[in-house]
Every structure is written in structure tokens, then in C-alpha cells.
Amino acid sequence: MRFTGKVAVVTGAASGIGRATAIRLLDEGATVVAVDLEHDESYPEKYQNRLHQVCLDVADPDAVLHLRAFLQEYFQRIDVLANVAGILRIAPFLEVTRADWDRVIAVNLSGVFFLSQAVARIMVDTGTRGRIVNVSSVHAVVSEPNAAPYTATKGGLEAMTRTMASELAPHGITVNCVRPGATYSQMSDPIYTPDIVRSLKAKIPLGEIAPPEWVASALCYLASDEARYTTGACLDVDGGYAMDGSLPGAEYS
Questions:
Q1: Is 150 an active-site residue?
Q2: Residue 53 falls within a domain, yes or no?
Q3: Among 150, 192, 221, 241, which one carries the catalytic annotation?
Q4: 214-217, Cβ contacts within 8 angstroms, sequence gap of 24 or more
Q5: Are 25 and 220 in contact (CB under 8 A)?
Q6: pLDDT tens digits for range 128-180
Q7: Which residue segment(s) compose the domain that 31 sits in?
Q8: Do the domain assignments include residue 241?
Q9: What is the CATH number of the domain that holds 82?
Q10: What's the total number of domains in the chain?
Q11: Residue 80: inside a domain
């Protein structure tokens, strides 16, 4: 029960890693403000007295201001912000449209920046030694063909995390990243064809694609007091994907 008495804001909380993170926080005693484009009616009834669902687009600056006002009105403090919301647009580099580029940047990077800024201001004003955890991707460091806007946002997010960590450290606020590898989610499921799944399992040293709960576990560690001395870090949760330089099906002799 690491989060008993704490208030956590989780974006992308209606599915995938976001929902798994919200559930884990609730299971460990937190009150959770679950942010997404739509309500998730599947949250178990037992959580309802500690679950507050808020529908908004994190890429909308006005919506972020409204969320900040809501948090200030109803909660004395915010202890945790988990920036999980993200989108992916698949297109070859030469065919990426300006509209898709702008939308991915708005959600994955600008949305994280301005929501973090809003929540960090609440933490500073209330003297809360809070935790901000961003969700990056293995594709911040490993190329992903046909996903240039997505990879750009994840690389930028990791750089931004380090700067945020440096500036917020004097306030006792930590800022860290989780870097997932292949993970089953609403975003990834449509592109995980049988051929892609076979290729991923051959590439990943641990041979598995993660359920979102495995990533949520790492995220909640960084959000907890157990990680009080960690800031500006990026934790790989990828089954060894990024570190492995082996040649599948071949060996040096």
C-alpha cells in the first residue's frame, strides 16, 4: 500500500499502460484522477470512491488549464503525475502529412510538457515532494520505420525529462521515464499481426511481448517513495530489446 493517502493523475487511463497504472495505484491505496478522451466504464465498482474520471484531450491547452483548476479545487495536493497518453501514426517518412506530424507532437510531447508544468506548479505551491513519470519507448533509441513523428516525440520526451528533473529537483520533485519495449495495448494491437509478433519474439531476448501490467509495475516503482533518490533516469522495460546486438539465427565462430 505504497500510495495510501496519495493523489495521482494518470493520462491515457482508459486503456493499455495507462489503465494498468491507474489500477495498480488504486490497488495500492491511491486516489486516482484518470484522464482520457472518454470514460472507461469497465473500472471495478470497488474503486469508485477513489476514482475520478476526467474526459479531456491532453493536447488542448484550454483543457489542461481546466484540469489544473479542477485539481486545485478538489484536492489539497497532487503526489503523482503519470504521463502515459500517446498516439502513433504509421506512414513512410516521405509520406508523413503535416496534420499527422502536428497531432503526434501535440499529444506525445506538447501535452506532456504543459500538463507536467501545470501539475508541477501545484506540487511546488503546496510544498509536495511529488513524482512525475513519463512514458517513452524503446523507439527513442531504436529506429522504428514508418513512425518518424512518434520516434521524434519519444526522443524529445527523454531529453525533456532530464531538464525537468534538473529544474524541479530543488523542490524535491523527481522526474523519470519508463522506456517500454513491445507491449500489448490498444495502440499496438492493430499493428501486431502474426508476422510482427513472431519477429518481435525472435528479436526480444526474453522472448515475450509484455502485457501492460509489467510496464505499470515499473512506472509505479518510480512514482513511489522507494525511488526517492532517482531522478532524470530512464528505466528500460523491454525484455532486453534495446541492449541486444545478437544476430537471430546466427552465431560468431
A1: yes
A2: yes
A3: 150
A4: 214/183, 215/17, 215/20, 215/21, 215/135, 215/178, 215/180, 215/183, 216/17, 216/20, 216/21, 216/23, 216/24, 217/24
A5: yes
A6: 999 999 999 999 999 999 999 999 999 999 999 999 999 999 999 999 999 99
A7: 7-236
A8: no
A9: 3.40.50.720
A10: 1
A11: yes
